[in-house]
Structures are given as C-alpha cells and as structure tokens.
Write a structure and sequence with these properties.
single chain; mainly alpha; 5 helices; about 65% helix
C-alpha cells in the first residue's frame, strides 16, 4: 500500500477538523473538531510507522499516548462546557469571550456624563456599560 492514501485521508480529516474549529460557534462541535484533528495526526503516525518499518513501533506507541491525552482533554473540556452552560445558559463561543465578566463592570456610572443627570444605581446605558466592560477586560 502506498503512503499517499493514508496521508491524503489524514490531510482531509485534518482540514475538516480545522474548518470545524474555525467556523463553528458551539463549544461541543469545536471539541469534536479538535478530536477529528487529533485522529488525523494518529493516522499519520501509524501510517509512517508502517511505511518506515520501525521495529520498535514508536509511531504506534506515540499514538497510544495521543489517544490517552485526547481522552483526558475531552473529559475536562466537556466538564468545562457543562459548567459554563449551567452558569451562562449557552455554550455559544461568541457569547463566552470574557469568562471573568462581572456585573459590577456594567453598572459603574460614567464620570463624563454629557447630559448632566445622575445615572440610576444598578442600571447603565449601553454606551457606558460597553465602555466600562472594555476597560474591565484590558
């Protein structure tokens, strides 16, 4: 068997996984895409191990370590996604940009108020909230 067949298949799997990581907004689908990319790497490791006729089978041994690391990664990743979903109510990655966001950053009054009125405690307009949130993240 030629080395080109598994190499092309691994390249296709890796490209599909890369597209999934870059284009998807759901955290579960991003984790699945990362797993697809790791499986493409595993396929390359085994294919090159067979092609080089390694007597120690170091490619296959490295594949076993990669599978173990991928299993730990998916376990921890799913636990984090479930915890975030319980706290925030969504697993949309675009809405989870700032995980250290607090409600205090949105309710701080703006010192340079243009209309001269006092802001209501506990409420901030959109401009003030966005400005304070941007200052809190930097």
């Amino acid at each position: 068997m030629h080395l080109a067949y598994p190499a092309v298949l691994a390249a296709l799997l890796f490209c599909i996984g890369l597209y999934g990581v870059l284009a998807r907004r759901n955290a579960i689908l991003v984790l699945m895409s990362v797993e697809l990319m790791l499986n493409a790497v595993n396929l390359n490791l085994v294919a090159f191990d067979v092609w080089l006729r390694d007597t120690l089978h170091s490619g296959q041994a490295l594949t076993l370590f990669t599978i173990a690391i991928a299993a730990a990664e998916i376990g921890i990743g799913l636990a984090i996604v479930l915890a975030v979903h319980r706290n925030r109510g969504t697993s949309d990655i675009d809405r989870l940009r700032d995980t250290a966001e607090t409600d205090d950053a949105e309710t701080l009054p703006d010192s340079a108020d243009t209309d001269g009125t006092e802001p209501t405690p506990g409420r901030a307009d959109e401009k003030t909230g966005k400005t304070k949130k941007a200052e809190a993240t930097t």
